[in-house]
Specification:
Elements lengths: L2 H18 L4 H9 L1 H25 L4 H12 L5 H8 L4 H28 L2 H10 L6 H22 L1 H29 L9 H24 L4 H12 L3 H11 L4 H27 L13
Helix pairs in contact: 1-8, 1-9, 1-12, 2-6, 3-4, 3-6, 3-10, 3-11, 4-6, 4-7, 4-13, 5-6, 5-11, 5-13, 6-8, 6-11, 8-9, 8-12, 9-13, 10-11, 10-13, 12-13
Length: 297
Amino acid sequence: MTTQQLVLSLVLATMVFSVALELRLQDFRRVATMPRAVVAGLIPQFILLPVGTWLATLVLDLPPNVEAAMILVAACPGGSLSNYLTHFGRGNTALSVTVSCVAALMALVLTPFNFSWMVASNPATAGWLRELDIDPSGIWFSLLVLLALPMVAGMAVSQQWPKLSERWRKPLGNFSLVALIAFIVAGLISQRQLLTMGLLPMLLIVIVHNASGLTFGYLTSQAMRISVGDRRAVMLEGGMQNSGLALGIIAVQFNSDLGMVIIASLWGIWHIVSGLACALWWRRSPVLNPEMEPPHV
């Protein structure tokens, strides 16, 4: 592992650890109190966006590494940033936190499962992986290091030393978020010779891909007939994939393949733009649900 890969892995592990510092058992118990809304938040993340992405890669004639990156991002769970933007957009923050918690646990199984069968059933990506001699099951190791271990550690600290975790949570969260953004920007600057008009097609792919996630979230919430506050949370959970986790997996398992890094980096920037745009729009027409629990951020 290179120094760059190690630094990124530490940043991502710190981000997951900081989020886990605020998790409580009651966050998981909320699943029983709002099952339909939680299911609505999980369907776009683990079914609609991954399958829709896989079908798109079968139709589109894109470079194999770009298609693999799209599948990987779609297979990742939502990121913690969706919790903050849901709160800012006056959506149901408790639902957003609950969906994020459940999705993080499910991702330990579903992310490698979805990625493995999708790249294997796409002739272009399957052949590309064989050429690189990469075993998709190696993603299990990345998820263990980048997601499972820091999450368990954060929840353990939160349980044993709640006051300490409260003091650490915000500084660590802010630091890791700024560090991740800085890492993405630095990576793009280091490859600035690629930042030409030729990059616009990849940006367009990311914009359409992200819009698909938001749309799937909206359509699912409409079909499940949940409240407006819940709908906002589900939309952001569907459209704000953890591209940072995808970057970490790309660094560890794919030797920072340039095409994959560009897709995941553009995702990391654009989903902040689209998520913030949604939250700002919603703040102009707030619809508060009196049954919503107090924000847990």
